[in-house]
C-alpha cells in the first residue's frame, strides 16, 4: 500500500514527508525528480512575497541508497527559510515564549472553525497548519509517485483553464511547452495576458481571484480502481484527493458539467477494438473512468479553486475573543494561487494513480511491477 503523511507548520523549521510503500529499485534523485516540481509550484503570476523568501529543495533523509529506493519508507525534508524570521512566535519550547494571539478570523479560512474544533484561543495555532505551505510537502510526495509512474508509462500534466472571469474553451491537446512558458500555466498566450491583467486589477483592488485547472494522466491502463465498492471507486478517490487541496471547492471528472446539460446520446464514449492496440473509445468525455474503473483513455478532471481568503482589503468578520465585528486579520498574501494549485493537482492525481497501480501490480519492487504490467497489458489486448 502506498501512503504518505506530512508534518510541519508554515513558519516552523521544516516540512517533513514520509512516503511509504515505494517499490525497491526505483532511481530517485531529489534534484532531478523532486525539485523541478517544487520550483513549478512556487511559480505562477499572482504569488505573494513569501515565495521570494523560499527556494524549496527536498532532501531525502531515508529510504534511498546509492540512488535507488530500498523499499523502506522514503523520508523527505523541505526547509522553511522563513523560519529564521519566526523563531520567536513559533518557538517550540515554553521558556520565555510570548504569545500575541490572532483573533480577527478571516472569512473563508479555517481560522474560526479550527479554533472552535481544537478549543484554541489563537488563530495562529490553526493557520500555521491550515496553510497552503503544506502543499509543498504534497508536491514532494507526488514527485516520488511521478518518478514511479514515469517507469510505468504514465505522464501527468496540467493547465489553467480559468482565472476569475477570463477562461478558454476546453481542449484535448495542449502544448506542454506553452503551458510552462505561460506565467499563469495557460496554453493560450492571449488568454494568459488577460489573466495576468485580471490578477493585476485584483491586486489594485486589494482583492483575490480563483479559477479552474485541468489535470490529466495519460498512459493509464484500463482496470485500475473498482466498480464493486464505494470506497474503492477510483473516480471517488481522485475527487477526494483533488478536493482536499486548499481552496478547492469542486472537482469535475471528465466533462461532468456539460454531461449534466446534455442528452445521453451526446455524452457516452463508444468503445471500439483497434487491432494491435486493444479496446479504445472514440471520445473521452467520461474522463478515462467508467463505473469507478479506468477505461484505458487518459484520466482527466477539472479542479475549481475559490479565491484565497486573505484579502489586502479585509472582509468584515468577528473577533473570536470578544464577538465584536472587526476587519479580518492581514499580514501578507497571494493574490491568485490557481497556477500553483494546478501543480499541486498534478501531484495529487499522480499520487492516486500510482497507489492504484501499486495495488494492481504488486509494489515490492519496480521489476515486479514492470513485469506484471507487461503481462497485464498483453492480456487486455486480447479480444475474447
Ligand atoms: C498562506 C499564506 C502565505 C502563502 C502561503 C499560504 O504565506 P505567508 O503567511 O508566509 O505569507 O504564501 O503559501 C506558502 C507559503 C506556499 O509555499 O505555498 C496561507 O495562509 O495559507
Keywords:
384 residues, four-stranded antiparallel sheet, alpha+beta, 17 strands, binds ligand EPS, Chorismate synthase, AroC fold
Straight-line distance between termini: 32 Å
The name of the CATH architecture is: 4-Layer Sandwich
* CATH T-level topology: Chorismate synthase, AroC fold
Structural class: alpha+beta
Give me the secondary-structure topology.
Layout: E1 3-7, E2 14-20, H1 30-42, H2 50-53, E3 58-62, E4 64-65, E5 68-69, E6 74-79, H3 83-86, H4 111-118, H5 124-127, H6 134-151, E7 155-163, E8 166-167, H7 176-181, H8 189-205, E9 211-218, H9 234-243, E10 248-253, H10 256-261, E11 271-274, E12 278-281, E13 289-290, E14 293-294, E15 299-305, E16 316-318, E17 325-327, H11 338-361, H12 366-381
Antiparallel strand pairs: 1-2, 2-6, 3-6, 4-5, 7-8, 7-9, 9-15, 10-15, 11-12, 13-14, 16-17
3D architecture notes:
- This protein is an alpha+beta fold.
- The protein has a single domain (88-380), classed as Chorismate synthase AroC (Chorismate synthase, AroC fold, 4-Layer Sandwich), CATH 3.60.150.
- The chain has 12 helices and 17 strands.
- The protein has helices at 30-42, 50-53, 83-86, 111-118, 124-127, 134-151, 176-181, 189-205, 234-243, 256-261, 338-361, 366-381; strands spanning 3-7, 14-20, 58-62, 64-65, 68-69, 74-79, 155-163, 166-167, 211-218, 248-253, 271-274, 278-281, 289-290, 293-294, 299-305, 316-318, 325-327.
- Strands 8-7-9-15-10 form a 5-stranded antiparallel β-sheet.
- Helix 1 packs across helix 6 (134-151), helix 1 (30-42) packs antiparallel against helix 11 and helix 9 runs antiparallel to helix 11 (338-361).
- The structure holds ligand EPS.
- The site of ligand EPS has 16 residues, from helix 6.
Amino acid at each position: 500500500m502506498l501512503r504518505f503523511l506530512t508534518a510541519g507548520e508554515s513558519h516552523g523549521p521544516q516540512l517533513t514527508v514520509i512516503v511509504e510503500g515505494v517499490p525497491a529499485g526505483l532511481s530517485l534523485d531529489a534534484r532531478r525528480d523532486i525539485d523541478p516540481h517544487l520550483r513549478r509550484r512556487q511559480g505562477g503570476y499572482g504569488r505573494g512575497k513569501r515565495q521570494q523568501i523560499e527556494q524549496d529543495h527536498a532532501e531525502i533523509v531515508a529510504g534511498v541508497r546509492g540512488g535507488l529506493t530500498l523499499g523502506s519508507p522514503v523520508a523527505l525534508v523541505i526547509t522553511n527559510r522563513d523560519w529564521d524570521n519566526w523563531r520567536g512566535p513559533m518557538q517550540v519550547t515554553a521558556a520565555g515564549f510570548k504569545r500575541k494571539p490572532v483573533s480577527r478570523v478571516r472569512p473563508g479560512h479555517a481560522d474560526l472553525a479550527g479554533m472552535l474544533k481544537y478549543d484554541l484561543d489563537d488563530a495562529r495555532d490553526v493557520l500555521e497548519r491550515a496553510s497552503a505551505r503544506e502543499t509543498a510537502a504534497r508536491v514532494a510526495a507526488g514527485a516520488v509517485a511521478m518518478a514511479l509512474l514515469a517507469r510505468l508509462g504514465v505522464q501527468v500534466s496540467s493547465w489553467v483553464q480559468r482565472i476569475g472571469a477570463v477562461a478558454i474553451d476546453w481542449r484535448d491537446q495542449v502544448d506542454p511547452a506553452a503551458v510552462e512558458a505561460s506565467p499563469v500555466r495557460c496554453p493560450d498566450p492571449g488568454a494568459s495576458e488577460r489573466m495576468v491583467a485580471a490578477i493585476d486589477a485584483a491586486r489594485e483592488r486589494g482583492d483575490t481571484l480563483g479559477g479552474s485547472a485541468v489535470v490529466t494522466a495519460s498512459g493509464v491502463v484500463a482496470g485500475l480502481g473498482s466498480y464493486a465498492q464505494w470506497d474503492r471507486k477510483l473516480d471517488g478517490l481522485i475527487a477526494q484527493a483533488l478536493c482536499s487541496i486548499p481552496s478547492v471547492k469542486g472537482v469535475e471528472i471528465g466533462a461532468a458539467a456539460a454531461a449534466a446539460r446534455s442528452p445521453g446520446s451526446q455524452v457516452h464514449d463508444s468503445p471500439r477494438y483497434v487491432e494491435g492496440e486493444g479496446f479504445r473509445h472514440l471520445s473521452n468525455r467520461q474522463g478515462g473512468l467508467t463505473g469507478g474503473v479506468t477505461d484505458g483513455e487518459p484520466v482527466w478532471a477539472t479542479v475549481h479553486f475559490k479565491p484565497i481568503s486573505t484579502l489586502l482589503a479585509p472582509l468584515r468578520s468577528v473577533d473570536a475573543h470578544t464577538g465584536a465585528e472587526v476587519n479580518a486579520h492581514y499580514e501578507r498574501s497571494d493574490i491568485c494561487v490557481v497556477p500553483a494549485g494546478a501543480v499541486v493537482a498534478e501531484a495529487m492525481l499522480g499520487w492516486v494513480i500510482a497507489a492504484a497501480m501499486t495495488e494492481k501490480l504488486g509494489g515490492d519492487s519496480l521489476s515486479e511491477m514492470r513485469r506484471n504490467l507487461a503481462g497485464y497489458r498483453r492480456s487486455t489486448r486480447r479480444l475474447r
